[in-house]
Amino acid sequence: MRRVVPWIVVAAVVLAYPVTTLAHGEPSFPTRDECVRPATTDGDIDAVFGYFDTESEAASVRDHALEVGFTGTDMEWDACGRLRVAVGGIPTLAVGHEFVEEARRVGFDVTLERTTG
């Protein structure tokens, strides 16, 4: 009997998890549009250079941004499975808009978004 009890517990967990998970309908995942959160207020703003499906594409944009002086440009995976190239730490929308204009002057199409995570 002592050997059966752990297996009963494991079986209960294995069966209970999918039942409780699916009880609320199918699991949902964010769409790519839901992963983009435009900045609408000051604080915790990122200047986003773009989203990419491959590390080589993202690294190329990141490296070019660093070459032309956008220090702090980094890339990270978002919740939608894409690489996001961005500079964080922008304190206000006004500063962000100045950043966007500077980036446009050197050929980048940057957007302002709320910081992820």
For the CA atoms, what is the radius of gyration? 21 Å
Order of helices and strands: HEHEEHE
Multimer state: single chain
Helix content: 25-40%
N- to C-terminal distance = 47 Å
Number of domains: 1
CATH class: Alpha Beta
Characterize the structure shown.
The chain has one domain: Sporulation related repeat (Alpha-Beta Plaits). A four-stranded antiparallel beta sheet has the order 2-3-1-4, with helices on one face. 38% of the residues lie in helices and 21% in strands. It is α+β, with helices and mostly antiparallel strands and 117 residues long. Strand 2 (74-77) and strand 3 form a beta hairpin. It has helices spanning 4-22, 55-67, 93-105, and strands at residues 45-52, 74-77, 83-90, 111-114. The chain is built from three helices and four strands. It is elongated, with a radius of gyration of 21 Å. The longest helix has 19 residues, at 4-22.
Annotation keywords:
alpha+beta, 3 helices, 38% helix
Give a nutshell description of this structure:
The chain has 117 residues and is an alpha+beta fold. 38% of the residues lie in helices and 21% in strands.
Give the arrangement of secondary structure elements:
Blueprint: H1 4-22, E1 45-52, H2 55-67, E2 74-77, E3 83-90, H3 93-105, E4 111-114
Antiparallel strand pairs: 1-3, 1-4, 2-3
